[in-house]
Design goal:
single chain, 37% helix, globular, 188 residues, 5-stranded mixed β-sheet
């Protein structure tokens, strides 16, 4: 490869990188949902529409679903670090929670009322600059809210028997994620 070709490739790569830098990714609030007991494709548009109507002045809400339950797809959603709320089966919620993948919710929700989502799992401390520690701290916390107890899903007549909504530690805005989750629970 000639020296000129190398420079051309480098310049093109820099242009791609710089073009991506200007995008405002925080303006999108993403929810991923998967269900191991049924078809969730019908809920995606209705859920997105309801949440967009409520939070559209703050963010663009994007709901994505996996038409077929697949644990590897769920893992990829965590690795991708782009979701603010993840809705998944109870066993997966507890598995990921025990590995420190969720934000504790007991400061926003009653852990006794949602006791099925209360279990031992890992959390991380956050310093005054918002930087998360590398060391996981094990303890009992509320990590998930049962979808079947959420007013929004009741209103939508969605029979979610074994699903839980969680906030991953990679959520772009923890306060907004808790606000959206609270709305989904109470419709207030």
């Amino acid at each position: 490869m000639s020296r000129r070709s190398s420079y051309t490739i480098i310049v093109l790569l820099l242009m791609v990188i710089l073009t991506a830098c200007g995008k405002d990714e925080e303006a999108t609030f993403q929810i991923f949902m998967t269900d191991d007991q049924g078809n969730i494709a019908d809920i995606e548009a209705v859920l997105e529409s309801k949440l967009q109507a409520k939070f559209g002045d703050k963010v663009t809400v994007k709901v994505t679903t996996s038409p077929i339950y697949n644990q590897q797809k769920l893992l990829l959603e965590y690795v991708g670090r782009s979701n603010d709320i993840i809705i998944m089966p109870e066993n997966d919620m507890k598995s990921f929670g025990s590995q420190g993948s969720h934000i504790a919710l007991e400061d926003t929700f009653d852990q006794q009322k949602y006791s099925r989502g209360f279990f031992e799992g890992g959390t991380y401390s956050v310093d005054e600059n918002g930087k998360m520690s590398q060391d996981m701290i094990m303890g009992d916390h509320l990590f998930g809210i049962p979808v079947e107890e959420m007013a929004l899903f009741k209103e939508l007549n969605y029979p979610a028997q074994n699903l839980f909504a969680t906030i991953p530690v990679s959520a772009s805005n923890e306060a907004l994620a808790k606000e959206v989750l609270k709305y989904m629970v109470e419709l207030k």
